[in-house]
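Residues and backbone
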Amino acid sequence: MSVPSSSLVSMDKAPNRFLLFLAILATPLAAGAFLLAWGPGDHYFDFSPANDGYVAPRDIAKTIDVTQKSTVTVYCNITKDKGTQGTAWVVENEVLQVKSDRTVLMTNYHVIDDCVDGRGAVTIAELYEEEKPASILFFDKDNDLAIIETDLKLEPLELSKHFLWSGYWVMTLGSAAGYEGSVSFGNIVNVTNEDVLITNNISEGNSGGPLIDNEGKVVGIVTWGSENKGEQFNGARSLDTFCKKIVKCDFETKDEKTWYNYEE
């Protein structure tokens, strides 16, 4: 039986074509394996917020969990039926100008204002836990900052060394309107000498909470909400304001201590 010449296959060329087919098949598989090994995740972690602060962290759940374990609700109890509520987070003792042998937490002055000079009792509570006693260690009324201390053993959050740029991803965590553990994602709108303007949704009770970057580090303290309905942003105090009376800062610009090195 004859076979059309167009269907004939030379046996000495068949192996070469078969190898070519295997090579074509293997190329995308090899490329995929390379990408999995090198990975967008690994590539991402090669960049600090200074270069890639615009994106959300790869593990948002872990970022929330770590932040939550170092964040508490703050109560300033004036009477049984009257008081104020806010948020606080643990800071490393070593960075403070004020010293304490206890666990120290940062919050806003206006959160504990009514309890200054023994006018009320300050307590704190971990997420869904009972209130525990705390005391006011130091406050900076002008910059709306305060330090409280407690015997609770909590891990501190790290302060970021990276300067903030408009568009950076940020997270807030606190007791928004009394709802403990509330989380909001947003981005930085702009930065002034004193404030970080953010798109994150916040409410009363968020005051004093940490503003977190995509490495899980603190870049500010949530302080105020815009009262102008035409303004689509809220505000946090920048780390530079901490340098005035609370945090030890290594850099200086225009005779003022700064947290960031503006000479770089």
The longest helix spans residues 14-38. The chain is about 20% helix and 35% strand. Residues 71-150 form a domain with the Thrombin, subunit H fold (CATH 2.40.10.10). The CA atoms of residues 86 and 205 lie 4 Å apart.
